[in-house]
Amino acid sequence: MAWVTGIVDDGQVEYRLTGHAGCYVRHDGEGLAGQSRPDVGDQVDYRMDATEDGTLVWIGEGLTEVGQIPGTVLDEAGRHAARALAKGVHPLTGEQLVRTELRAHPRAKLTGARFVAAVEAAAEAAGCEPADLFAGKPKQAKKWATLTRMVHRKGERHRLQIDSLHRLARAAGLALEDVYDADELAEARAHEGERVSVRIRAYDLVADLPKSDSTLWALLAERHEKEFRALVHRAKREAFAELERWIGYGLAGENGELHRIATGGLLGWSVEHQSARPVDDTPGDPHLHVHIVIVNMARCEDGRWRAIANGGMDLHRHAKAFDALFKARVRALAHERFGVLRTRSPRTGAWEVEGIPEPLRDHYSRRAAQVDALAGADASREEKLRVSTETRHAKHDTGLIDLRATWRRRAEDLGHDVDAMVAAAAPGPPGPDGPLAVAGPDGPRIPSPERIAAEVFDPQHGLTAFDKEFSRAQLLARVADACPLGLEASELEALAERVLEVEGYAQALPPRGSQLMAHTERYTTRDIIRAEQTVVDQARVRHADGSARLSPGQAAAAVSVFEVAAGFTLAAEQRRVVERLLTAGHGVDAVVGVAGSGKTSLMEACRIGWDGVGLTYAGASLSAVAAQNLYEGSGIPSRTVAAWLQRIHDGDGLTGIDVLVLDEAAMTDDRSLAALLTEAARTGTKVIAIGDPQQLQAIGPGGGFAEVHRLVGGETLVVNRRQKDAGERAALEIWRTGAREQALNLLADRGRVHATDSADDARRSLLTAWDEARARYGDVYDMLENLVVLAARNHDAALLNAGAQALRRAAGELGRAHRYALPGGDHLTLAVGDVVRVRTNDYRSRRGAGPDILNGYRAVVTDIADDHRVQITWRRENGDGTTRTDQAWLTVDQVAAGALSLGYAMTIAASQGLTTDTALVYGLGANAYALYPGITRARTANRLWLPTAALEAPETRARLGEPHDETELLERALQAYAALLRQDRADTMVGDRLRAAPEPVAPSAPAADEPAFPAWNDHDARPYGALPAAQLEARLAKTLRAAATTEDAAEERTRRARELAAAAAEEPSAGQRTAQAAAAVLAAADRLAVRAQQEDGMAHRAAATAAQAESVKEKIEAAFGRSRLALRLAGTSRAEQQALLTQYTRQLAEAREEQQRAEHAAAAARRQAWQTLRTSPYAEALRAHGALSEAPDDPAVMRQRFAAMHAHLPTLAAQIDTARAEAAQQARLEAVALHTKARDLREAAEQLQAEQQVRRHTSAQAPQRHAADEAARTAALQQEQRQSALRARQTREQAGHRQPGDGVRTGM
Hints:
The chain is an alpha/beta fold. The chain contains 42 helices and 36 strands.
């Protein structure tokens, strides 16, 4: 299909001027010199045909306005002209032809929520409303209103330019320095004067061909391949000429209204490419295609230059029609020149060349397979483009490589006789009398309008197979594609008109929205109208027809039995639903229930009632596993909708069924719903449809369920009983009001949204979280019940499955493995221990062959036999609440046929009806109606991963650059995702556009009863009746967020109070335990103080010994002066004196050493004793007794202090226990206060929701009253604003007349 890419900067323009634009091109050139020169009238055609691969050629009739000639090659001067045109500049005069669109630099913006909070705080301090701060300043007041509205919508993600914030701050009397961090302000001010261009300069339109065309061209002889390329260029020019007629206009304003204005044609250049990008370092495969770069401006008939195609939207709308026409022209020309015939591929839907084998086509599709393997076959165009860009290889230098010879050799290596194959595929022009004869001089045979209508309007595969309506632009694409041998370009629109005129198919719809673009006419098909009318008629005709009606007493008895069996009492809304379904007697009834409202449980209560009176019942669900879940949850035997439709087709239908419960009815398409209701009318079966229009929509055209609910005035279950987290509940409530962006912001604030840059990073991060979360569960069956990974697309689920399997294999958790070959060349590796998902229905119990294996079951591979049969085991619930495990063997043929896939991850659609503990959701590809069920699957935590780069438009990424930090990454992911979600619309009834919507069946209240709606200004009945709609929605969202936050805080305080109360009741008490521990510390410190005392004593004794030794030593030294005779007379000798001197010298040294050691040991023991106390957790508690003061020098004094502290410990224990008891009591009081506040907030939210409900009811049932209320409310608000402004002005005037003597400081 044709791809359109916006070009927003110089680099992207330059890339398109290189000649390869991301594809491989040759450098040796392949001209068409061997062909004869065409007639003069074909000069332009000849110039284009004579181009080489990679050569840029001008295209578009508007080029003459800037001195360029269509069909000529761009030389260096031409490239310079192309650069100028892309900038909106005339290449010859330098005149700026279109104004450059500039926006503030993203770094010059700051988050607005912080400023709003600062203004609200200032207003509260001043005792006024925030808007009063801007009274008398209308421009800033208007900006303030816009800012608050955007912050309400986007929360922290809304950013405002710093100069605007500065003006608002000055008007409100604030300083930005008091609101934002200095670094934030510095960065914003550094970029304040910078502007970035947001104008799309040009569009890159790619026209490609089925792979068989490229294959045939690649293998044709040289002369014929040049002819084939020539006809491709002719098809390009003819299709582009039609596109030029469709989108070659500008928009001009006149009297405040826009209108289309013709131009002289488009401006652009094209380039032919012959090869895909290299794969695995080998030259690329044959891929003949054309890039057309269309400059985003044209000269209008009034002489002014303007952007084209309504801002490019019309180009995107007509891209498929251009692509289909281009391919149709190639088919026609290839048939005329080469006799090529076509067969539509059942796999891709493309018209492939007969005679080119599919295996060879696949062999030449390595690059496409590579991109599909990374992005997924079901990925969006944008995602495939992103992956293609990220995985591009550098160009090969193939100047010496003959690619066509290489391609031929590869085909021969596969065993193909290339010449015979080419001869069969391109036998030559058809003869006038042969089977390939053309219908005349106008071109190839075209199917009749009747045949084309039967194809393009086919209910299963046509334009309304999945959508209820289509545009003429879409019809053009399908009509062109319905012609196997193509058609003339000029015939397409007339043929489409004739197809519309075929009786019994198309139905024109009234115009809707802007009619500025081309082919905006919209249509539906008659079978859609008939299906809708059937749904409406059955809902109306069978209202209150007495079907399956029980008495109130019988219903009450059923409810009582259910409550006893279930062990809980139904809430008021649940009881109301059951009573209505059992007693109202409507042949068609409907119940809307939010996710987690307990819809299936209520069906069990109804079943009990039907059993009591002998009614028969059955259920219907879209999938077999959903039908089984309905049976296990309610006791209602169920089968798939497809199975019921087959029974209807076979003639059995609903015979013998009194009540049919249609589960997840919003997912049932209108055609199927109409068939079920028609059959139910025939058999008198009551149909109860249960679902939620805000969850997954029907695969086909839907909306019938919501219409039935409206017509019959069905009940609605609004209380979410699944999510435990109050913040998640609040976010989901906000989501259902339509404020999806606010809901996402609230989830992000609570850490439930995780942003990465790339899709690969997002999947890796999600799998890391999965790997951590699964560790909480005892076995794999517990993991299956409590943890699920979800994705919107099959391919993403497959990638996540492969990643999860790899993690388990690396952890050594998987056993014996086998690789199974699947159809289409795919493979599936299974190992013992792997989690798998069943992908087929095998009702074995019906033939006595074991338990049923149903599509959607998740199981564990428990054995792989020697013959590679696979045993799977799964856990199911019994009727009494216990569980059992079932087992079954699957043959190799069953596995090879796709009966199993890995089951760690699944699609969101496959998870419908599932309730788990934790859900990890990969959000790329999920629309609003898929994301909501995805983020409501789990009770405890629902977490969402978003890849920013894959969500942002390429032009946005080019303009903003790479995110600077995690905060910006998350902000941009949320902004891009919210923008996508805003595009999603619920299915509606297209018939309402052809006639007034039918009135509900339930009679409206008579006019006299209309005053039952309280007056909007009755404050007692409607406390929020005076709020404008926008403020009402904002107040509700804010109140829900506050309620969730307060509930969290209340739960936390309650938990803390319980912990404190439990601690206070423990024996021994906390105080006693503290006293015991402190006593142990004091005892240890005292032991150290005793050691210090002992060491002090030893030091004193050592000092005395030293003093005695020193005295003796001195006497001996004094005797050394005496003579030997004197010494002999004294009874001694000099030798004895020397020995004594040595002895006492040693004794002195030893005593002094011991003294020093003891003194040091005593000091160390004192320090250690005091440090033992000071560094203990009890020092602060004993501060009053000197525990934190300097250590006493005397150990005795220290021990006295320790003794005093020990004596204080009983008092300390009492103080601690008293404080703990007081803290527990305070926590209880705070918890009560928070619970009260949360209850008040919830009541306020209910009142706000009730006000919304009253307004909706008033609008529906008393529209004149509603209009009058709105007018009165607006008038009252304007009056209040005038009075507020007057008060503010009076306050300023009073302040201005105040004199210094009035108590105002003058600074003197």
